[in-house]
Amino acid sequence: MAGAIPTITATRMFEYDFMRTAFLASGVAAVLAGIVGFFLVLRGQTFAGHALSHVGFTGATGAVLFGVSPLAGLVGFTLIAGVGMGLFGEKLAQRDVAIGMMLSLALGLGLLFLHFYTSAATQAAALLFGNVLGVDRTALLTLVLLAAASLTALAAIARPLIFASLQAELAEARGVPLRFVSSAFLAIVAIAVAECAQIVGVLLVFTLMVGPAAAAQALSRRLATGVLLAAALALAEAWGGLTLAYYSDWPTSFWITALSGLVYAGSLGARRLAG
Amino acid sequence: MSALQFDNVSIRLGGRVILSAASFAIEEGEFIGMLGANGAGKTTLMRAALGLTAIAGGMINVCNHAVTRGNSSIGYMPQNRGLALGLRLTGYDVVASAAIGARFGFARLDRATRREIDWALDHVGAREIARRSIGELSGGERQRLLISQALLGRPRLLLLDEPLISLDPAHQKSIVDTARRLRDELKIAILFSAHELNPLVNAIDRVLYLGAGAAVIGPVDEVVTGPVLSRLYNAEIDVVRIRGRYFVMAGDVEIEREAHRHEDHGHGGGHPHDHGDAHV
């Protein structure tokens, strides 16, 4: 008898239109983030991904100020910054100080844009910490199309990207255009960051992009398995977070970060046990 | 046909002359040991043959063709091996990533490519090694795996940059034996750079010695002599030969040994150093 109650409530969760949209949106963003994040961790560029999300904040607030949709501003700005980082070469994309400076500059500029925009508070909170329950149908469609495009692009450059990530010098000798691969990849990261920011906000993008990917790399020694595992973990964390938020009425983003942290810690433990 | 031919090649890097009108040729199926002081241009010479470093004058031919980037007739093992990241991956996945790494589009690891990978692994005896994570391999095992990558695409010329670095004598011997076997079985030309001559001396066909912008090629006992090396090092050099082993001395210092110690010093981690600069 007692076991029947959760089933009834679970059905009710999906009766709400905004919940169905939230599940779809977070699912799409999580799969994209998990897969792109796997390569980001493999390349040791996680900090660059973090910085891109802050640039996205500037783009989104700037867009709002000029009456454009925040998502458009987010995607536009992260894309430009991502390609720019790539063109400056591998060395810049891994240079912590330069990236850190850009990151805080971007956040400060975003704050300035918010200052000019009057009804800032809720908008700011949604941008910084995400508002998956506020995703509407149009935004969902955009998320799906962007994810499909970036996953296709990623599949097309995957082989040279892996080669260049693991052995840059050998890849260069074999004719892989390192700079092109790096810029194309950071453009894809920019899209993934923008999608993630819709779900968990710009400050917490790490939780979906890096957490599941790092856990997958601790758990698997094979590339293909690792990519799939990263996507599956990100999906489970996003949906788990939504469900927990529905029942607890705590913020979705909190639950996703909590699950992400838990899974990462668990993966390190499992790896230690395995030797 | 020469596997690698330098005709009056000059190379300058940041105002420093690395090679000045140097000429030499490596024939098919020859195992050449390349020696020279730090900064003499061993890595730069390999990068020039790969089209990664521009030459200031002269002509380089690889298997009778002009230099191009991504030349499939050259197999290369860089000194800066990367692999600081992704250490959990299996050796097989790393070699596979090199095997199809130059292909854009939706390249799949098809049966022909997998057969090629197995062929390369078998030739260096790394089939079993490749099942393990690269982070778990010993230096010698990892080197073997990296040499197998250089065989992918069945090149006619192997450029191996310092394969003996940070290996103990037993592993050094096994890597040199592997290279010699590759030459015998595949009739492939091998240019093998090293800091010390002695681990190579019984395996190589000829030695290529770099220094003072010049390159001298020939049999070991004609090149590794006091007069030749004095010219290449710009210093008074004595060569002492004891029971088939060579000791190259500048005054009281044994210079090859000294060079090796410097190299080991900077070799703790992923050692990201700038090629083409002083450290070659």
Poorly predicted residue ranges of chain A: none
Give the SSE order of chain B as H and E letters: EEEHEEEHHHEHEEEHHEEEH
Residue share in helix of chain B: 25-40%
Report on the biggest sheet of chain B. Answer: 6 strands, mixed
Low-pLDDT stretches of chain B are: 262-280
**Helix-and-strand structural type of chain A:** mainly alpha
User: In what range is the share of β-strand residues of chain B?
Assistant: 25-35%
Please describe what this structure looks like.
The complex is a heterodimer of chains A (275) and B (280). Chain A has 275 residues and is mainly α. In chain A, 84% of the residues lie in helices and 0% in strands. Chain A has helices at 4-13, 17-42, 46-65, 70-87, 90-93, 96-116, 120-129, 137-166, 168-173, 178-200, 205-209, 211-219, 223-248, 252-274. Chain A is globular. Chain A starts with a helix and ends with a helix. With 280 residues, chain B is of the alpha/beta class. Chain B has 2 domains: 1-73 and 155-280, Rossmann fold, CATH 3.40.50; 85-153. Chain B is built from 8 helices and 13 strands. In chain B, the strands form 3 sheets. Chain B has a 6-stranded mixed β-sheet, sandwiched between helices. In chain B, strands 2-1-4-5 form a 4-stranded antiparallel β-sheet, with helices on one face. In chain B, 42% of the residues are buried. The interface between A and B is medium-sized, with 29 and 34 residues.
